[in-house]
Amino acid sequence: MSENNDSGKATISMGASTKQGYEIAEKSREIVKSLINAKTKDLTPEEQSIVERIVHSTADPDYADITRISKNFVTESLRAIDQEKDILTDINMVKTGINSYSGRVDCYIRDERAVKIAKKEGITRAAAAIRVAAQEGFDGIVAVGNAPTALLEVLELHKTGEIKLNSVIGVPVGFVGAAESKQALKQTEIPYIITEGPKGGTPIAVATVNSLINLNKGNKA
Amino acid sequence: MSENNDSGKATISMGASTKQGYEIAEKSREIVKSLINAKTKDLTPEEQSIVERIVHSTADPDYADITRISKNFVTESLRAIDQEKDILTDINMVKTGINSYSGRVDCYIRDERAVKIAKKEGITRAAAAIRVAAQEGFDGIVAVGNAPTALLEVLELHKTGEIKLNSVIGVPVGFVGAAESKQALKQTEIPYIITEGPKGGTPIAVATVNSLINLNKGNKA
Fold first, then answer.
1. CA distance B121 to B138
2. Which of A50, A122, A192, B134 is a plausible cystine mate for B163, CB 3.0–4.6 Å?
3. Where are the transmembrane segments (chains A, B) (predicted)?
4. B56 counts as catalytic
5. Under CATH, what is the fold of the domain B62-220?
């Protein structure tokens, strides 16, 4: 069930690393498929596997209704992952959940520079942390699982050409600004995955990244 | 919005550490209250604040319907936190989300002994990690945000007197075994919080622990 294990067994295992874990993951996969098959029938197999993993991680089939994936998201994300480009997360919980990636996973929310910028400019630390990443020359996939302000900062830096992006996993959560920040992402040309409305969160961001990592492993196998 | 920041501002801030973050958290709190007030009116103020934080973290008011808290849960948990007793988590994502605790937060899922036990006995690593914690003399609050097998292991070790517990945050997620493991916890005399059915997850576990930490800070202030 874990989004927090190493795994060799690519797309089916969903993070399981033991026989019992593997059996649970397989049973869960069947149940998830039966619950959301009708809702995901127009998606590509890769997109389906991402949505399956999100529903597996949350036990919430609603995510099959509210997840939106841009046409170029899977291709652009897999290209970045295959090239081992960086993954940037808004908070450390998302970073902790991504643990079988051969590239770098960064989060600057506890970086002193982020703390300083946040204080000086009266913005959230999550937003300031994105600015620090851009200053560090970040280039890759951004995964926002928590803070709408971090997602808005990504869009702002993209507009001014100050951040290099392959794709954005934009699934911040909350009743204040989350839905709006995701709509704003949807209106750009950035390859994206979002969840419509207030729902989202770290498990959704982690499930998406780990699903992409497994899809890339599957492509290579 | 973050479950992942340090914070001095006790119960209201919900993890915010900047002016903007604080304003967002306060607005969110009002919205959450308006959404769930009717559902939580029979809870104590402390229990209400826990449920509010769970709904804030997930943007999912359903959690106000499915969260169950035993009568002695808040008192026993606050006693443990005030004494800075250990908190044990099933996976590292939960541990990462708890970052303003003055006591220890442990997770043994990557411990070599857990890997060995899991392989030898054909159990999940999350369950084996609980056994390692018990062998290490764990005594405090257990927070299971992911693996039903970890929660069942806690109950088994409690039955045989091999683990010392103040309370259990039992919110594993998934369609295979999660609901059953939570029902099993409910039938013990252990002080508990659970979410009925398959839903649960790391944000729920983290929100509960951080809410308790803030309640304890509030009591001292």
1. 22
2. B134
3. none
4. yes
5. Rossmann fold (3.40.50)
Residue B101 token pair: 């605790």
Question: Is residue B12 less than 8 Å (CB to CB) from chain A?
Answer: no
Instruction: Read off the pLDDT band of B23 (50, 70, 90).
Output: confident
Question: Mutation test of the interface with chain B: which of A14, A124, A210, choosing the one with the most B Cβ atoms within 10 A?
Answer: A124
- How many CA atoms are closer than 13 Å to the CA of A217, on its beta-carbon side? 18
pLDDT of residue B14: 65
> Which residues of A are annotated as catalytic?
56
Q: A112 — contact with chain B (CB < 8 Å)?
A: no
**Res A4: pLDDT:** 41
The ipTM is 0.91
Q: Which residues of chain A have pLDDT under 70?
A: 1-15
Catalytic pick among B53, B56, B158, B182 = B56
Query: Tokens representing B205?
Result: 């576990």
Domain ranges of chain A: 66-220
Q: Report which of A103, A212, A215, A97 is spatially closest to residue A145, judged by C-alpha positions.
A: A97
Q: Confirm or reject contact between B163 and chain A (CB < 8 A).
A: no
Closest CA to B63 of B176, B175, B210, B193: B193
Tell me which residue in A31, A109, A127 faces B4 most closely, judged by beta carbons.
A109
User: What tokens appear for B195 in the block?
Assistant: 């979410």
Task: Compute the CA torsion angle A102, A22, A91, A214 (nearest 10 deg).
Answer: 40
- Closest to A55 in 3D by CA, of A79, A39, A41: A39
pLDDT band at B99 (very low <50, low <70, confident <90, very high): confident
Give the pairing of strands A192-195 and A67-69: antiparallel
B96 token code pair: 């990462």
Strand partners, B195: B67
**CATH architecture for the domain at A66-220:** 3-Layer(aba) Sandwich (3.40)
**Distance of residue A21 Cα from the nearest chain B Cα, in angstroms:** 5
Q: What is the secondary structure of chain A as a DSSP string?
A: --SSS--SSHHHHTT--SHHHHHHHHHHHHHHHHHHTTTTTTS-HHHHHHHHHHHHHHT-THHHHHEEE-TTHHHHHHHHHHTT-EEEESSHHHHHH--S-SS-EE--TT-HHHHHHHHHHT--HHHHHHHHHHHTT-EEEEEESS-HHHHHHHHHHHHTT-SEEEEEEE---SSSSHHHHHHHHHTSSS-EEEESSS---HHHHHHHHHHHHHHHHHHH-
Closest CB to B20: pick one of A123, A174, A202: A123
Instruction: Report whether A36 contacts A65 (CB < 8 A).
Output: no
Q: Determine phi and psi for A192, rounding to 5 degrees.
A: -140, 160
